[in-house]
Write a structure and sequence with these properties.
Elements: E1 9-10, H1 24-41, E2 46-48, H2 51-58, E3 70-74, E4 77-83, H3 89-92, E5 97-101, H4 108-117
Parallel strand pairs: 4-5
Antiparallel strand pairs: 1-5, 2-3, 3-4
Length: 124
């Protein structure tokens, strides 16, 4: 089977949302504060790639396993980008949505980002 026929990016929403280290009110406050700063700067979306910022804006804390992770914050909220090794856990443990990429191709992480950032003109 050629890698073109395999899934590269998907959404796994299995299980129920579970424990978050921060309250819904606190997560909304953080998101709203960043979106205000984005408005002032004319930024359409922000991409966060550190453990600290991904957890700060999504509530998801992960173990890297040598793979890339991210969180995209835009007008719709926050979406985490995670490796398939974590299955549905990133969606269950974050306040927003999650996009999962597979290891079938080297650039699947960037394919996931491209899917999320397609219409963005200015990225922070």
């Amino acid at each position: 089977m050629a890698t073109d026929e395999l899934i590269h990016v998907t959404r796994w929403h299995n299980g129920e949302k579970t424990f978050s280290p921060f309250s819904d009110g606190e997560m909304s406050r953080r998101r709203d504060a960043m979106q205000s700063l984005m408005d002032e700067a004319g930024i359409d979306a922000c991409l966060f790639t550190s453990y600290h910022n991904i957890c700060y804006f999504s509530g998801f804390l992960y173990c890297k396993f040598g793979r890339r992770y991210g969180a995209v914050l835009n007008r719709d909220g926050v979406t985490t980008v995670s490796a398939a090794i974590d299955g549905g856990q990133p969606w269950r443990r974050s306040v927003g949505d999650n996009v999962t990429y597979t290891d079938w191709r080297r650039d699947s992480y960037f394919t996931a980002l491209k899917e999320l950032l397609g219409g963005v003109k200015r990225l922070g």
